[in-house]
Amino acid sequence: MDNYLLLSGLQHFLFCKRQWALIHIEQQWEENVKTAEGRHIHEKADSPFIKEKRGDKIIVRAMPIHSYTLKLSGVCDVVEYKQNRDGISLSGHEGTFDIYPVEYKRGKPKKGKEDIVQLVAQAICLEEMHLYSIDKGFLFYHEIRKRVQIDITPELKVYVQDLAKEMHHYFQKQHTPKVKTGPHCRSCSLKNICLPELMNKISVQQYIERKLDE
After folding, report:
1. Which residues 6+ apart lie within 8 Å of 69 measured at CB?
2. CB under 8 Å to 201, separation ≥6 — which residues?
3. Helix axes 154-173, 114-130, angle to 10 degrees
4. Which single residue of 137, 165, 198, 205 has CA 20 to 30 Å from 10?
5. pTM value?
6. Which of 112, 34, 24 is CA-nearest to residue 72?
């Protein structure tokens, strides 16, 4: 899987292609409060290879996944196998099961699709691994303490496939896109590396004077 990219990069790529390239191509990273909180939440969800049975569900945490179609690999926070007579068989368990990926996120639901594309990519991986169609998954948001159901449509799957192709194109070219500044820059963990004001064609002198004024 040498030519596979990290599935988690889809979220970065949709949020800001430059941020994704700085992390995944140039190997740069800075942590802020949001990334620290997000890492803590995932550490609580990710207990590798732990399986537990709750009623009609089998819950698997930190499950490694990959997709030949997307050329992406990663880890599912949680995969739920729920009993359904039309589902798949699982070794060591009676009955058949539907499959639902569950991704844990800090904060609350976003206006964009950054979280959704990551969940859809996980569903595509699980579909390929189990040869079984998945039509929904869940995003659990820590701030509201609630899970949100996401319908995994054919249109979303095509959208994610196109994003993955674009990611691979940038990675193969080792290309870091120019910055497109916006409100999202203020909360970006890489703003001190990216320097969006400087990259947005203000002079070095103007940038230094602005920082001194702050």
Report:
1. 124, 128, 161
2. none
3. 100
4. 198
5. 0.79
6. 24
Length of the chain: 214
Quick one: which of 120, 4, 170 has its CA closest to 73? Answer: 4
Helix (H) or strand (E) holding 209: helix 204-213
**Residue indicated by tokens 């002079």:** 203
Helices assigned H by DSSP within 83-152? 114-130
pLDDT digits (tens, 9 = 90+) for 31-43: 543 444 445 444 5
For the CA atoms of the chain, what is the radius of gyration? Answer: 19
Distance CA 106, CA 143 (A): 6
pLDDT digits (tens, 9 = 90+) for 174-207: 988 876 666 665 666 665 556 554 454 444 444 4
Tell me the C-alpha distance between 116 and 155, whole Å.
Answer: 12
